[in-house]
């Protein structure tokens, strides 16, 4: 195994640069605080190839909503978070949000931290079939977007790449916008189930719990792709490496020695492991509901009282 | 609602003709008995348009395996039934069974009697991704068929027709044979969860628990489609009509009066209802496992001891 | 099988008396209409043994909330229904509602129409362990009731009567009030998933989808038992009998002939069948959520915005 | 957090002693190899208080079956493992195995690695209710044991300790033997989902994924308790500590320094995390089936072909 810190959050990649307050060429970081609800909204814009190279992520905009109370709060709290997701989604979708949208819930519904995508789809209010049955007039009157949704499963269940399934579905149903929901890996335990990343770049290989899937983006799918992700796991190798690095640095070792040692201790076995909290079932249930509400309000046009 | 007896079993359509031992033009019925296991295998062949018209089903071969002990038997019993399914599948697939196969599990996994298809897919041994990873030599050595599988969900969950999803997946992955698994409606309560129909005609509209889906067959999909179905429900309107007919005939009414009356009593509400046994969870679990084993042995080439 | 119309709703028993506007001795029926939300609240009070005999139900109060739009309405509608359940629950619990409550979700979570009880328990906010950990002061400050909950499963899964499991749990944990949630059988298809019955009599044998369980009431459990039930199925034999009766009466037959005939046509097989709507998954999910909210607000003291 | 290596396997505690081949007073380790199936059976007997103290585990017998191929093998392999579980169970149950047995599936069915217990119970063939219905003669003729089963859920779902629920059930149903199934934590990643521990000591506090439950043993329950456990997780703090220790030892630090440092780096957050493999769903499904088969054959008397 190559030694590599794994995170799917652009914000954490940005934070990993030692020169924290120094500008990285081609990367703009802005920040907004919702004081009342203790929510921080950070936007990482990767503007050019230099920025993409430095960050190891494609050019695009990555909005991160951090709501530290999300995991243990009561249901009251999910409304402002859900509203913020909607609002930021709209920034990235532009005018597309009342158009034909396909929501894709990636991941394995049988593995709790990977079930985020399928659970969001389960709570979604799909409308495409209603519009096809009752017509355009019905759509206008109710100001509905046309929402369809699929949970394609994982390769071990289907024998197919998610990319293949979704490409096929797009060819047949012609959505104008794809929203991909996925469970992510973060570097920091404290971000698990409290952070939502919205990116207009789609999904890159190596993201999430099931980490060898192919890219799902405008290039591979031919349609604009917005990804919504929530970190639900930390890579086991990453947690070990982070702790060791902290220690070895404190005892005066150089980067090279540290990398070499970590590559040795992180065996192949640890590589296929992830770290997840004990209350992961409740956390995934709550946050998938929050995201579904945001999507319902943003795309279906369903207004809940 | 039109008054119409609903069954998805060709055998039951054939039985509904009063002239039971009379030949129907264009329809051949043959029968085989496995005495030891008390299993009856009936084959209805619809040879031409006249037969199709008479039967209200497309031209093709419908094999029905009736295993009355299947529902309450121990696990020992599932092996001979599974073997019979394999054997009869091979009759209909011809040489295709070691080729590239896509198994489609129709139905709604949240509604127990409609979960047959998804449950079969859950137990399947898919191999397509392994073959793509390890190559043709690996396939030859292990004599594997290439099996992929999908449970497309139902329109209320996805906003899309199953047909659209499957067509798209076929375009991307090019299987040579489609196996569609679906929960059916039978006319007779005693056939529920004890009968398997295998047909080389695919799925016609109006089948199963979710009965307004479009046809899935060679014409609509461009690939040979074999359907495997198990009756798990009886249409509520059918059970009412059957009982009333029995009674009214016994009191001397003519067909026309009977039809007229039944059309009145079967309200719109009954039309969206189905009848299912109380132990449906156990029954569906067992028979979906039996079918998965048949598919694994027939297509993946997986031999279980 | 004995011919017997099966309903678990006291209101339907009351309606089955031909002399609809005549007083039945020992039974008082009152009615309330919430015009705005089109909800009807009926109260059947069985005052004495004569009434109990006439009704075939134990002495007690049965409140029925009929909300015909509940099944296909949006989420806005669940709030007034949930509030009405809370309000009527409080009438029957008296001062007990902030005391130690055990909620029991009867039924089989693997059979969709029988999963109501377990799904209500899944959505419940339990507090007993928090109060035991953080103490009485914490309870007072947050005005929490002490809520515990269990889904005991069904006899085919556990080998035990629900009564045995619940009695044991009561002995160990000493709740002052039991709330039992159960899926019921109604006579009328139109009441499925739109009606909630709250009764201070507990559960009688023969109720629900799994209909041979023992009584769960103050007598058998030693604690006050309030039952909340929603009809999710109609007995298949009942639907057949109702239709036949309607027909035979119209052709001039007497009750005795009708009973005799129906006993013949309703075979043993139909006896173990139930009728349920095709969208039962969505209906049960919605109404179980509505009931959970009512219980959370009534017992845990959880106030949702 | 106290720094403490967490493992629920007596074998791993024994291995943690540096003097590996030296006798520990009061502890006997024996070993058996099934060459054909590459299975190792180790027995740790803790004979007295001295041994219990040294091991940090109660006096009793701990049998560990290690089947390294269990996780990725085909179904053929589960039979010999299942037979070994049965055989070793019988050693610990003595003559009780055809008596009245209650199987308890601990854990949270919503969290994949903690779902082992509930999934074993789901696959179990329970017989107690059949014996009560059909009588002792039926039991003798079929040589059935009386098996009942319950999955009590976890405290966050029920508000009750598992101990309270089980004690209550025992009082009402009087089983003579309790079998408790639980997901365990191991120290070694390579033992996950490939190892089964059978112990006649019951369950101690601090075991499993949900690690603050009370002891379930003869003392607390009044009946003999045998525990069957499978490690499905590694404690995140343990994996970090193990790696650090390895490193610090290699650079010449003493135990005390190591402990001190690890206590610092393992923050509170890591303490509530566990490490689990990505294919945990498949692994838990397979091994829970293997254990159910062993229990069915050992207790119900169900013989599968």
3D structure, described in words:
4 copies of one chain form a homotetramer. By secondary structure, chain A is α/β, with parallel strands linked by helices. Chain A has a single domain, classed as Rossmann fold. Chain A contains 12 helices and 9 strands. In chain A, strands 1, 2, 3, 4, 5, 6, 7, 8 and 9 form a 9-stranded mixed beta sheet that branches. In chain A, strand 1 and strand 2 form a beta hairpin. The longest helix of chain A has 21 residues. The mean pLDDT of chain A is 87. The interface between A and B is medium-sized, with 31 and 31 residues. Strand 9 of chain A pairs antiparallel with strand 9 of chain D, so a sheet runs across the interface.
Distance between the termini of chain A: 51 Å
What is the CATH architecture assignment of chain A?
3-Layer(aba) Sandwich
Query: What is the multimeric organization of the chains shown?
Result: homotetramer
CATH superfamily of chain A: HybD-like
What general form of chain A does the structure show?
A: globular
**Which structural class do the helices and strands of chain A define?**
alpha/beta
What is the CATH C-level name of chain A?
A: Alpha Beta
Helix/strand order of chain A, N-terminal first: HEEHEHEHHEHHEEHEHHHEH
Q: Fraction of residues of chain A in helices? A: 40-55%
Unreliable spans of chain A: none
Beta-strand residue percentage of chain A:
15-25%
| Estimated radius of gyration of chain A | 20 Å
Number of strands of chain A: 9
């Amino acid at each position: 195994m190559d030694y590599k810190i794994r995170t799917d959050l652009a914000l954490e990649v940005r934070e990993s640069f030692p020169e924290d307050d120094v500008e990285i060429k081609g990367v703009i970081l802005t920040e907004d605080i919702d004081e009342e609800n203790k929510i921080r909204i950070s936007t990482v814009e990767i503007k050019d190839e230099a920025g993409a190279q430095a960050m190891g992520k494609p050019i695009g905009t990555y909005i991160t909503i951090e709501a530290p109370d999300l995991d243990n709060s009561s249901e009251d709290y999910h409304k402002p978070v859900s509203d913020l997701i909607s609002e930021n989604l709209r920034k990235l979708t532009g005018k597309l949000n009342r158009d034909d949208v396909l929501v894709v819930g990636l991941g394995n519904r049988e593995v709790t931290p990977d079930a985020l995508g399928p659970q969001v789809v389960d709570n979604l209010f799909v409308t495409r079939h209603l519009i096809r049955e009752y017509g355009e007039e019905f759509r206008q009157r109710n100001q509905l977007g046309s929402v369809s949704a699929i949970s394609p499963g994982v390769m071990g269940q289907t024998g197919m790449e998610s990319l293949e399934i979704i490409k096929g579905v797009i060819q047949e149903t012609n959505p104008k916008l794809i929203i991909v929901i996925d469970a992510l890996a973060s570097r920091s335990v404290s971000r698990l189930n409290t952070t939502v990343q919205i990116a207009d770049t789609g999904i890159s290989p190596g993201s999430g719990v099931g980490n060898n899937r192919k890219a799902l983006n405008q290039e591979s799918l031919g349609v604009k792709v917005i990804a919504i992700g929530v970190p639900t796991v930390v890579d086991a190798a990453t947690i070990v490496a982070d702790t060791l690095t902290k220690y070895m640095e404190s005892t005066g070792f150089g980067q090279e020695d540290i990398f070499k040692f970590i590559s040795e201790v992180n065996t192949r076995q640890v590589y296929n492991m992830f770290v997840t909290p004990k209350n992961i079932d409740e956390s995934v249930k709550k946050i998938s509901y929050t995201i579904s509400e945001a999507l319902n309000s943003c795309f279906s046009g369903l207004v809940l009282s």
